[in-house]
Amino acid sequence: MTQLDLRHGTQRVFAHLLVSTLVVSVVNFTVWFAVTFWVFLETGSVAATGIIAGIFLVATALTGIPFGGVVDRFGKRAVMQVSAAVSAVVYALCLVLLLLAPEGAFRDPTDPLLWALVVALMLGVIAGNLRTIALPTLVTLLVPAAVRDRANGLVGTATGVSFLVTSVASGLLVAVDGMRSVLVAALVVLVVSLVHLSRVRIPAVPAPAGPAVPVTVEERGGLDLRGTVRLVAGVPGLPALIVFSCVNNLLGGAFMALMDPYGLSMMSVAAWGLLWGVLSAGVIVGGLLVARIGLGSRPVRTLLLVNAVLWASTMLFPLQASILMLTLGMAVFMLLMPFAEAAEQTVLQRVVPYGRQGRVFGFAQSVEQAASPLTAFLLAPFTELVVVPYMSDSGAGAAAIGSWFGTGTARAIALVFVVCGALGVVLTLAALASRPYRRLSAAYATAPTGSVTPAAEGAATAPDRSDAADSSDAADSSDAADSSDAADRSDAAAGPDTAGATDVPDAVTGTGTGPDAGRATPPAAPPSPAAVPATPAAVAVTTTPVPGPATTARPPAEPDIAPRR
């Protein structure tokens, strides 16, 4: 299978969840944008809008790890429902506060009541991040490995659509009736989302064969930060990938902090907003391209090559003060960004055990997102106090390159962009030549592709996480999952028909990459719990006693959904 089939089977479930997540994301981000606009209109304070952005970025970084633990600990549908319900309750309380507050109650930027409202609204927005972390794990569960890169491309398209709709909807709703209309619309959409989710049946993960697996104290809590860090460290090259993304975001923070002043130096506010609305369509097109053509067999290489082009474009467009060059440079950036994001998700979905993917995605989000606010908060003052004087008419930079590069505030910002782009190109080329890149590529190539098989209706199921991968010893054994030894054990667990294959057959298509790949196989009967194939990581753990803290036996868990009668 080389193309998505969103009309049948588990991929149809994924399509429903993707649309639901898209709609809820539009609502949550509309609230975020709208509260920023509304606070500025009410108070006239630029500092207040910056604080709101800081609240969102810091909260996103701090909640990634615990949210990942929640995603792995509980059923995916329950997590998505709780996320929407929490946002709805918070927005309802904020709407009541708005309706009861006297006229002009929120015009003082130092009023505690204003900030209580802002913080509450941002909590409702941040609760939606549970869906953001859960969605890539659902790609692993519901989409065959051969087309997961294309499914990740659709996730990128959904991001572009949400950005485009949010940019328009937030301004229109605030203009109509301030925050009241925004919150009413949000409540309606969230209630519809909850009703829709109640009718979507997400397959559960089958219970592993054999005796009950011990559960550590950390696992019962769902967070297990130490085990997650050890797992990340145990996958060859994965820490380097996360560090690379973190440094990328660190450099990207320059554009977050300075792009608006740079663009507004060349055009009006209305034209700048319209330009970004058009450019956001590039993310949609890029995501659709990924869904159509995929990422190839080496997504790690694709990720780095795309980053090299992205940084080259951001280094070149500021060389001259040109609206055309700015538009072309940012169009390239927006078009290729879904390729980079889909490549990173595809790699993590393959090399990380399913039961830990929520925590690893949350960990990566926390580490990567922590860099952007740091640059955004530090680089703007640095540019104003150091780079602008350097590029002023009497500055040393103006004397050296001002004759062709230009002088003044806008050209000072452009110089920062050029330096950041050049550093990004050097970083990416160094990563391409590095040993961690080769190790991660090898780990991806040797990792099994069919590690998750949704349970048949009525079969015994485990919680919506991989029991085997949830102990800290499994983290230490993640390299073993990529070894031929573990592959042999997986083949043996899967049955004689797969023994000797170099890859586990795909959970949905029944195809693999071994000697029998491409051979037609008859439909199999729904497996019993004892006949469910185990992943290499599962075999490595369930066949060996797990030492560690005090443990309790896990009782049989209920499936995420009730079987049909």
Helix residue percentage: 55-70%
Secondary structural class = mainly alpha
Order of strands, widest sheet: 1-3
The run of helices and strands is HHHHHHEEHHHHHHHHHHHHEHHHHE
Low-confidence stretches: 207-221, 456-565
Mean pLDDT rating: 76
Which percent band covers the strand fraction? under 5%
Radius of gyration: 25 Å
| Count of alpha and pi helical runs | 22
Distance, first to last CA: 32 Å
Number of strands: 4
Overall geometry? globular
Largest sheet: 2 strands, antiparallel
GO molecular function, one term: transmembrane transporter activity
Region (Disordered): 451-565
Main location: membrane
Membrane topology: Multi-pass membrane protein
Write a structural description.
The protein is globular. The protein is mainly α. Strands 1-3 form a two-stranded antiparallel sheet. It is 69% helix and 1% strand. The longest helix has 51 residues, at 148-198.
Compose a concise summary of this entry.
The protein has 565 residues and is mostly helical. It contains 22 helices and four strands.
